[in-house]
Amino acid sequence: MTAHALDLHVRHKVRRDSFDIDDKRAQVFRPIEHGVFFKDALLETFDEFDDWSKKKGERHRMGQNCRKVLAALMWCCDFATGTCEPSIDTLMEKTHFARATVVRALKLLWENGFLNWIRRTAKTGLAPDEGPPVRQVSNAYFWDFARMPARCLMRLKEKLARKGKKFSPPPARNFPRYEGLQKRRARAIRDKLAYDRATKRNALARARSPEEQAAVLYPNDVASQRLHLEMLLGDSASSAASLNPLPNRSIQKE
Predict the structure, then answer these.
(1) Which long-range contacts (CB under 8 A, 24 or more apart) does 176-182 make?
(2) Could you tell me whether strands 116-123 and 134-142 are parallel, antiparallel, or unpaired per DSSP bridges?
(3) Residue 137 bridge partners (DSSP)
(4) Do 76 and 84 meet the contact criterion of CB atoms below 8 Å apart?
(5) Rounded CA separation 248/254 (Å)
(6) According to the model, what pLDDT value does residue 35 have?
(7) What is the set of domains in the chain, with CATH numbers?
């Protein structure tokens, strides 16, 4: 039974912020100097950083699962060109980990600056009524040394220098980075709150009367504005009374 084109669209839905494999933004591969020496030095640097960053009584920040995934990525890397594009299934096969474990390890490596990647798509060449125009392909993985902790980059250079290898990281570039829906919503909320606070702060600074202040604090809420003004007037009356108390008539003159 032939699958319907709409079914193919559902099954082959591409991930957000993916770039075509021929798009210049997906051209992230750069030759990696010193090949195997780089691999050994990076894994040693990983071990040092994971031990150094571990807090007493807590688990390692990344752990051995991340190390094994990192080693598998470098095993799949062509150091002469920097090409590193294994699928998740390939990483699962190399590490003998479940998919969720591989995905979590990749995320931890990215969060700690030991890895970066670009999501990619490729054209299918199918007609609109035959299936989706593009399909998801494997990520393009690369080492973005601008994101690596400065301490780790320094140690990486030192380790290679001990082996007579001078390491010069490629120039830093601003790579696009995917953000999950939850992170995008949280960032949008934070940005809106910061904008609203700044706007309200500026409006309060320009307000010349209590009425204008109340209108800024409670826009389109007449009842709250009235309550705010009553509170201000009440506080003013109480302050005036405390500064100028009435004479105590219970005190008898001598």
Answers:
(1) 176/17, 176/19, 176/25, 176/118, 177/17, 177/116, 178/15, 178/16, 178/17, 178/119, 179/17
(2) antiparallel
(3) 120
(4) yes
(5) 14
(6) 85
(7) 5-178 (1.10.10), 187-241 (no CATH)
Average pLDDT, the chain: 80
Per-residue pLDDT of 122-177, as tens digits, reads 888 776 666 677 888 889 999 888 888 889 999 999 999 998 988 887 766 666 55
17-to-117, 158, 200 alpha-carbon distances in Å: 12, 36, 34
Interatomic CA distance for residues 215 and 213, integer angstroms: 5
CA distances from 129 to 137, 186, 228 (A): 21, 38, 63
Where the chain has pLDDT below 70, the residues are 1-12, 127-131, 171-184, 234-254
- CA distance linking residue 50 with residue 44, whole number of Å: 10
Hey, what amino acid is at 147?
R
> By C-alpha distance, which of 100, 67, 65, 69 is closest to 84?
69
Orientation of helix 64-75 relative to helix 88-95, angle to 10°: 110
Q: Is the dihedral of CA 10, 12, 17, 19 positive or negative?
A: negative
Assign residue 14 a region: left if phi > 0, alpha if psi is -120 to 50, beta otherwise? beta
Q: What percent of the residues of the chain are helix, what percent strand, and what percent coil, each to the nearest 5?
A: 50, 10, 40
Q: What is the rounded CA–CA span in Å between residue 195 and residue 193?
A: 5
One-letter identity of residue 157: K
The predicted structure's pLDDT at residue 43: 93
Map tokens 């021929």 to a residue.
Answer: 22
